[in-house]
Predict the 3D structure of the following.
Amino acid sequence: MEILENFKDTNLAGGVFSSLIVILIMIILAIVIGIKAHFQDPLKKPKGILLLAEVGVNFFDGMAEGLLGKGFRSFGGYLMAMGVYMFLAFIFGLTGLPSPITYMAVPFSLGLSTFMLIHATAMKYNKFKYFKRYIEPVPVFLPINLISMWAPLLSLTLRIFGNAISGFVIMTIMYSGLQGASAAIFSALEPFIGEWNQVFLAPLVTWVFHLYFDLWAGFIQTTVFLSLTAIYVGQEIPEDLLG
């Protein structure tokens, strides 16, 4: 109980709590799918959530194979984990809770994960030659090369955050405007229902924009992030290993 009380007293941002909920949802889904897969008859065609999981695995493995080659089909597991988290984080705002993507630390963490994977892959295949890139074509370029190495991290982070926060700002302005308009139009109802007269217009209009800013934009940004991740990583793999 003391642990729960201490957890309640923490001053974590709303986006962090939302991110933890998204991760918890993913863990629960993974456990459910794992249990169902364990008891699934291998001779029968999967149904329901198992079928959805199989389609997802095949899709992301195929994406990895298409971008990196047949030898890197297993990279689809990383793409799937990142893709599912990102898409759920984008659409989480539909619940009325803060979207994790609009909290800068979350896009930065996603970009940092890919950034570390890029350089880990480079060191794996280049060994000590990896450090040679920072003094090419001549050692005097070391400061410039050290600065440019952060470009993928900044690009991935700001791309996600910029698209998410722009949609959030537009929707906030729209809700604020519709709230005022609804209060003015249905002002006669205020003595009976109080401030509830401010919410009539928003559901009639905002759902269309949620389809774009949350669902469609979330899908597009997730796809772009995963594609760039695979491309950046693929640039560090020797060409003779790529299919």
